[in-house]
Amino acid sequence: MRKESGSSWKLGVFVVVGLVLFVATIYFVGKQKNIFGNTFHISATFKTVSGLKVGNNVRFSGINIGNVSDVELLTDTSVMVDLVIRKKYQEFIKKDAKASIGSDGLMGDKVLTISPGTVGNSPVKNGDIILTKNAIEMEDVMLSAKTSVDNAGIITDQLAQFTTKMNNGNGALSKLISDEKFSNSLQSTLVNLQTASNEFAMFTAKINNSGLTESLDTTMVNIKGATKGLNENMEAAKNNILLRGFFNKKKKADAKIAAELKKEEDKKKKQQIKNTEDSLKKIKPVVPSSKITSS
């Protein structure tokens, strides 16, 4: 009897512990899968789900807010994904929110991420279909990385060839660098450029000197005064009795030259008019055919 009662006690404890673990497992799994909580459903349509499956997490702003409840193939280019989300997050998901598929880490499970919409828009309702955006596929990333690695390899080979030619003294650039005459010529050129730059700086400093500026202003004033005095002297010379005859003769000579030029120009115009009249006279008038018939 004692052995049977001891065995029954152990069996009872084992059954109770098993039931507790079973209930706890159901509770935690149900909570994780939103079985017992207050939830709502929305959907999203993708061209490809990239390995997304039922039970994967749905995230909003980095927080797990639900799960994927169903993945259904509609057409050959369209896949419908149904989401079950906790009710308390419904007010944060707007009508213009977008869903995308990503990975939980570099090689982790697929995750459906919902990006926030515009603050002013109304929240989604149960059964709504939200917008989607294409995610970056890992295959595309690997292909891009492979292309970059290939390009880096080509550049490395070209640099190695260039370095080899430089070390062997082949090529124009290597000869220019290793040529002592070219090096000396280049150094002389740099020295000349530095000297010219210093001289130009000194010249600019002299121009900016206030004393030189005042001297230039004084020179310009003197030139204007000399020009004015020369004009006054010319007017006085014209009114002088001794020089009046010279200026009158010069004036008459200029007038005579102008008259001869005008006369020559008039003569050319008359000749052109005469040539035009002669050309018109040579043109025979065309007799209408009606007059020829009547005659």
In brief:
The protein has about 300 residues and is of the alpha/beta class. Helix content is about 60%, strand content about 15%.
> Which stretches of 5+ consecutive residues score pLDDT under 50?
286-295
Q: First CA to last CA: what distance?
A: 166 Å
Instruction: Please count the beta strands (DSSP E, at least 2 residues each).
Output: 7
User: What is the overall pLDDT average?
Assistant: 78
Task: Find the structural class using helix and strand composition.
Answer: alpha/beta
Measured by DSSP, the beta-strand proportion falls in 15-25%
Main beta-sheet annotation: 7 strands, mixed, barrel
Tell me the Rg in angstroms. 52 Å
- Widest β-sheet, arrangement of strands: 1-4-3-2-6-5-7
Helix percent reads 55-70%
Shape: elongated
Order of helices and strands: HEEEEEEEHHHHHH
Number of helices: 7
How would you explain this protein's 3D organization?
With 295 residues, the protein is α/β, with parallel strands linked by helices. It contains seven helices and seven strands; from the N terminus they run αβββββββαααααα. It is elongated, with a radius of gyration of 52 Å. The termini are far apart.
